[in-house]
Amino acid sequence: MKPRIIYALVAIIIIIISIFGVRQYLENERYENFLSRQVANDIGRLTGAVRVNETIYDEISSSRSLSLEQVETLFHNNHSIVNIAQEHKNLVLQFKRSGQELDNIPANKASDIAYYFKRLIWDIAERQGIDVSNKTTQFPIHLSKSKPYPIKDKELKKIRIIKGLNNTWSQVISNNVKCVSDEGIMNSDIFFDEYVDKGITSDYWVNVAVEMEKRTDKYLDKNYLLLN
User: Fold this and answer.
1) Measuring CA to CA, which residue among 39, 40, 55, 45 is closest to residue 167?
2) pTM of the predicted structure, to 2 decimals
3) What share of the chain is helix, strand, coil (3-state, %, to 5)?
4) Which of 66, 82, 137, 208 has a Cα-to-Cα distance from 215 of 20 to 30 A?
5) Is the pLDDT of residue 217 over 90?
6) Helices (DSSP H) in 64-148: which residue ranges?
């Protein structure tokens, strides 16, 4: 084979390899950007859910009552926490971002909390004389949405313990996420500038997942009987 032909073939192979390498790089770049946006959106939703929950727990504690509207919000917010905690646990494991094994403790407890409030509002409906033997809806629609219904002291005590766990989650977020204040308030503009494109390579979301696991486990050790 003539040297000129060999050089031409080598050049073609180099071009093909270069094109493949560029495509691979761009695909990895797009995937990284996609995950970064997903994780940033998740952390934004997590911060918002925890913050709103804190406000509602304060309202319940002060008024010694709760409404159907509050229960629905707490139910959906805690389910958001479940989904985000599970997704981030899976990402941490998938990318081997932590040497610590995550046992899904925050997600499990947030799920317990969501269903605790669901049971509580159905108990209130029964005390209000509503037939709850055939539950065809998720929540008792015959209750007023906004009317506050008094709750028992034992339930109020449990809700205050739940609020303490929620405060722990808020502290974890503010400890590890830039632009989130100690009060759990996020500066969205600065946050997304910081994390929206390359955030998946940062440890902020990994630290949130790992610390939420540790702090939740520690909190449950002290308050297990009160939360179950």
Assistant:
1) 55
2) 0.85
3) 75, 5, 25
4) 66
5) yes
6) 68-94, 105-127
